[in-house]
Write a structure and sequence with these properties.
The chain contains 12 helices and 8 strands. It has 281 residues and is an alpha/beta fold. The strands form 2 sheets. The protein has a 6-stranded mixed sheet, sandwiched between helices. Strands 1-2 form a two-stranded antiparallel sheet.
């Protein structure tokens, strides 16, 4: 688990950078080599290798290829995944996206930059409708701040054919009357309509499913290439954010998401369920 990006002079330790560095360090240790040995291969200092492995500096493709060769990593899929991760990380470091115009995004900035680069997002929500599927009145009921509302609505514009969203929502989130009855009725219809988009899947876990592992904690799984190749898990808790950057823990969260999804209503049943709750209000 890692904190969000932290500045150090002109450098930045990013989630993707730390993920890439961690993968290379894992291969180096498996090969029984030191940072000094790695430094010689790429004609760098030991200190630079340490910064690379900690995600403080971007990595170029020739260095990654040289290190993979040194570490005995010759699987094309593994090398290609590392190169793709490095490419996305370099783009995120230099990107000046729409979020630059919204200083109010604050601690969410790194998540938003990753979201803009992701190809697939899996979101498990316990108490609220997923942010990418919230209507304007619902957003404003959560936080009556024009900058916050504008930023969230702009985020939703990223939900185009490039990005696939798989959302599983606990029934409690649909019964939580955010903003009152009228707002919630509008939100439920907005959610049902959003679920009809070809790149969006919404499934509801009803109370009748009983107590399940994962019910106590909402989280997102962001993928940037092939499924599972570069997964990053984001968990937002009061006053801080938690990142799980690949490895067994990220895999466990992905498996847990699929388990919860498997216990939820299917997409058609979920739409019917959402609209039936709307009629009850």
């Amino acid at each position: 688990m890692e904190r969000s990006q932290t500045p150090q002079g002109n450098r930045m330790s990013t989630v993707l950078g730390r993920r890439l560095g961690g993968e290379l360090m894992k291969h180096r240790l498996a090969a029984g080599l030191t940072q000094g040995r790695a430094a010689k291969v790429i004609s760098a200092s030991t200190g630079k290798v340490a910064r690379m492995e900690s995600g403080w500096v971007p990595m170029c493709d020739p260095d990654i290829r040289s290190l993979c060769e040194l570490y005995g990593v010759d699987d094309p899929a593994t090398v290609g995944g590392l190169l793709e991760l490095a490419r996305v990380d370099r783009e995120r470091r230099k990107a000046k996206g729409w979020w630059s115009d919204f200083p109010g995004v604050g601690a969410m900035k790194e998540y938003i930059t990753l979201e803009s680069a992701a190809t697939t997002i899996k979101t498990w929500q316990v108490a609220y409708v997923p942010g990418l599927l919230q209507c304007e009145r619902y957003i404003r009921a959560l936080k009556a701040d024009d900058g916050f509302v504008a930023a969230r609505l702009t985020r939703q514009q990223q939900l185009d054919d490039r990005l696939c969203l798989h959302a599983v929502v606990y029934e409690a989130a649909l019964r939580n009357l955010v903003g009152g009855t009228d707002v919630m009725r509008e939100q439920l219809e907005h959610l049902a309509l959003g679920s009809e988009r070809p790149n969006v899947s919404v499934r509801i876990l009803p109370f009748s499913a009983g107590a399940r592992v994962g019910i106590g904690c909402a989280y997102n799984v962001l993928s940037f290439a092939e499924p599972g190749a570069m997964d990053v898990v984001y968990i937002e808790i009061p006053r801080t954010q938690v990142w799980i950057e690949g490895g067994d823990e990220a895999t466990e969260h992905d498996v847990m998401f699929e388990t919860i999804a498997g216990q939820a209503l299917d997409e058609r049943e979920s739409r019917t369920f959402i609209r039936s709750l709307s009629k009850e209000l």
